[in-house]
Each structure stands twice: as C-alpha cells, then as structure tokens.
C-alpha cells in the first residue's frame, strides 16, 4: 500500500464503494422477446455467458431466463422476463434418458421441476428429473434453447439436443498451474476449485 499510494491516479476505496462503482446492472434488466430469441439461438450449440445490451449474463442466468420464458404466460412475456442472479450447479450431472424426443407434457414437467429447484436453491440443478430419468443440465439447456428458437410451443414432441460448454474454454485444464503464485505454498493444488468452476460437462 505504501508503494502504490504515491502513484499518480492511485485511489483507495472500500468494499462498499467498489460494489457501488462496479454495480452489476443485470438484476434490474428486463429481457424482451428479441433478447430471449437471440440468447436461445446462440445457446443451442454453445453454452456460455453473453452480453445483452449493456450487461452480461452468466450461462446459469441465461438458462434461468430461458426457463422462465418457457413457463411464462403472454402477459409476462410482453412485460419482459427480469434477469436475476442464479448460480451454477455444485456438481456435474448426467443424462440417462436416451429417447431422441420427449412428449411436450413430459418436457414441461421437467421445466417445472427445474424452475421449482432454482426457486428453492438459487442455483441450477446438476440434472433435471422427470420420474426416474434425468437430463444433464447442459443437455437440458440446449434442448430448452432449441425449443424456443424453433418457435414450436404447440408441437407434440420436443427434440433433445446436446451442446458444447463454451465457457469451459476459459477454465484451466489442470489443478496446479493456476495456483503457482506466491500466496500459495509450493506444490499447492486445488482440483475441487477447478471442478466447481466448470461443472458443465463437454470440456
């Protein structure tokens, strides 16, 4: 601090000031149909964060928004779906259902289950369940996006999709190299941190 303080332009701020200066704008935003359709179109093949106008949404927040759009009525869609903070899963899920399509009602049952889980926990589930069959969250996200992008809410069947984890490209591929800096002891490794950072399969 003694070294930095005399530097031209250096300014010390508190944590509260930091939060105000770099305020996250996303929680006050409404996502309209154009926003949802753009997010869904991109999400069909690559699961990653995205910038909408002047704010950024994480992959988890996009899934939450697409899910609430799917379950919303015409009035709520017309007003816009409010963006909100949503955390990623705590672990990696898996897909056990093998059918290429799901009946519309079975799909909506999965959507309602996922929405209930998010409301209760504030984060995405690792897998989305309907009966004894599950969909890994990445397959659920891609299918959700594909259904919105297809504009086929009245179709009898929903095609299941798979997508690549795009944001995993930004996560280290090992649990040692990212921690080779002075604050850590020599040889420090953190496999669980790396795993939590990229809980979506498809790396």
What's this model, at a glance?
This protein has 203 residues and is α+β, with helices and mostly antiparallel strands. It is built from seven helices and ten strands. The strands form five sheets. Strands 1-5 form a two-stranded antiparallel ribbon. A two-stranded parallel sheet has the order 2-10.
Spatial extent as radius of gyration: 20 Å
Counted up, domains total: 1
Order of helices and strands: HEHEEEHHEEHEEHEEH
Mean pLDDT: 88
Low-confidence region ranges: none
The SS-based structural class is alpha+beta
3D architecture notes:
The structure is a single chain. This protein is of the alpha+beta class and 203 residues long. The protein has one domain (25-197). The protein has seven helices and ten strands. It has helices at 15-21, 33-43, 59-71, 74-79, 104-121, 137-150, 191-197; strands at residues 30-31, 46-47, 50-52, 55-57, 81-82, 101-103, 127-130, 133-136, 157-159, 164-165. The protein has a two-stranded antiparallel sheet with strand order 1-5. It has a two-stranded parallel sheet with strand order 2-10. Strand 3 (50-52) and strand 4 form a beta hairpin. Helix 2 packs across helix 6, helix 3 packs across helix 5 and helix 3 crosses helix 6. The chain is globular. The N and C termini lie far apart (40 Å).
């Amino acid at each position: 601090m003694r070294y930095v303080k005399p530097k031209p332009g250096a300014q010390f701020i508190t944590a509260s000031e930091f939060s105000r200066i770099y305020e996250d704008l996303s929680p006050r935003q409404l996502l309209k149909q154009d926003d949802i359709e753009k997010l869904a179109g991109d999400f069909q093949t690559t699961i990653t964060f995205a910038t909408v106008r002047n704010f950024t949404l994480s992959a988890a927040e996009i899934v939450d928004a697409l899910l609430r759009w799917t379950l919303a009525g015409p009035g709520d869609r017309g007003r816009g779906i409010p963006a909100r903070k949503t955390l990623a899963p705590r672990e990696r899920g898996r897909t056990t259902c093998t059918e290429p399509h799901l009946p519309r009602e079975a799909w909506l049952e999965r959507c309602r289950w996922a929405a209930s889980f998010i409301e209760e926990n504030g984060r995405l589930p690792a897998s989305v369940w309907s009966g004894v069959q599950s969909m890994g969250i990445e397959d659920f996200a891609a299918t959700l996006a594909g259904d919105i992008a297809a504009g086929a809410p009245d179709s009898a069947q929903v095609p299941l999709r798979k997508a690549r984890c795009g944001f995993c490209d930004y996560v280290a591929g090992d649990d040692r190299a990212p921690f080779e800096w002075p604050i850590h002891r020599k040889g420090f490794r953190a496999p669980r941190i790396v795993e939590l950072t990229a809980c979506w399969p498809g790396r």
